[in-house]
Specification:
Structural class: alpha+beta
Radius of gyration: 22 Å
Mean pLDDT: 89
Helix content: 25-40%
Number of helices: 9
Low-confidence stretches: none
CATH architecture of the largest domain: Alpha-Beta Barrel
Strand content: 15-25%
Distance between the termini: 14 Å
CATH class of the largest domain: Alpha Beta
Shape: elongated
Number of strands: 9
Length: about 280
């Protein structure tokens, strides 16, 4: 476990050393020996924010410190921390600190600070996480997809579901699966889909995607949505994965599998599937 955590901490140290440089998610994730796709999901579960939000918070913290203690031009600080213009820097600075960069120079100006992250997994009492590892043949899904950016996906994907489900019977699939498919760097496709049946026509507006066969860790999520899924998802990345032995993450996708809604939301049973390979 410590080796895995050490690699993740190395990636955060890499961010810290390069806050005034252009940061590439591929290089960051490589320090933890993970794909950008998985790195960003694990980062969000462990840290409670996206990689982009963390970088912006750290840059704004250091920018304010420099403005408050040194005689430097705002434009120079803006460029140093990756902003193309003083206006875009001022807007970002004001959102973070609540004051303008010029006001930050004044004695006693109220500034916010976000400290560097240090990843540490501690045991605070056992928690049960029900899962099984199974092997599945390839299968094909059919549905609709939309491309999302990792920094905004937590807010935008629920809106996508609401938009689709609001169509009622006009929506061409039931929504058995929610599937994330890595498209490189910070973008991924999210599918709302069902199992494709070759003997049936593909509904208008839908397309298909084949999920390769292989090993899967299947986690059961009991209770009301979305809390039950979010709770198990956090435990997968923060507790289960650091302690995993004999297997590694595989593939460029993961799945949410939705069972029929129960009369009592507490009785709902849904699943998260994570692709694996033997180490």
């Amino acid at each position: 476990m410590q080796g895995w955590i050490g690699g993740f901490q190395e990636s955060i140290n890499f961010i810290e050393k390069n806050l005034t440089e252009e940061l590439d998610i591929g290089n960051i994730a490589g320090k933890a020996a993970l794909s950008p796709f998985y790195y960003q999901r694990i980062f969000g579960a462990l840290c409670g924010m996206t990689v982009g939000e963390y970088i912006r918070a750290r840059r704004m913290t250091l920018a304010a410190q420099e403005l408050s203690r040194e005689d430097v031009k705002v434009i120079d600080i803006a460029v140093k921390y990756g902003y193309d213009s003083p206006d875009s820097f001022t807007k970002a600075f004001q959102r973070f600190h609540g004051i303008t960069p010029s006001q930050a120079r004044e004695a006693g100006a109220p500034l916010r600070a976000f400290a560097p992250l240090h990843i540490k997994i501690t045991m605070e009492g056992g928690t049960m996480l029900d899962y099984r590892i199974v092997e599945k043949a390839p299968f094909t899904i059919v549905g609709v997809s939309r491309r999302f950016h990792s920094d905004t996906s937590y807010q935008e994907i629920p809106k996508f579901w609401d938009e689709c489900m609001a169509q009622g019977e006009k929506f061409p699939v039931m929504g058995t699966f929610g599937v994330c498919v890595d498209m490189g760097e910070k973008d991924f496709d999210y599918w709302i889909a069902d199992l494709y049946k070759p003997w049936e026509d593909i509904p208008e507006g839908c397309r298909t995607y084949q999920i390769p066969g292989g090993l899967w860790a299947q986690f059961i999520c009991r209770g009301p949505l979305p809390d039950s899924l979010q709770s198990v998802n956090t435990k997968i990345w923060s507790e289960w994965l650091p302690a995993l032995q004999g297997y590694e993450l595989a593939g460029k996708y993961n799945l949410e599998v939705y069972g029929p809604p129960a009369e009592n939301p507490e009785d709902n049973e849904n699943y998260i599937w994570i692709p694996l390979k033997k180490a």
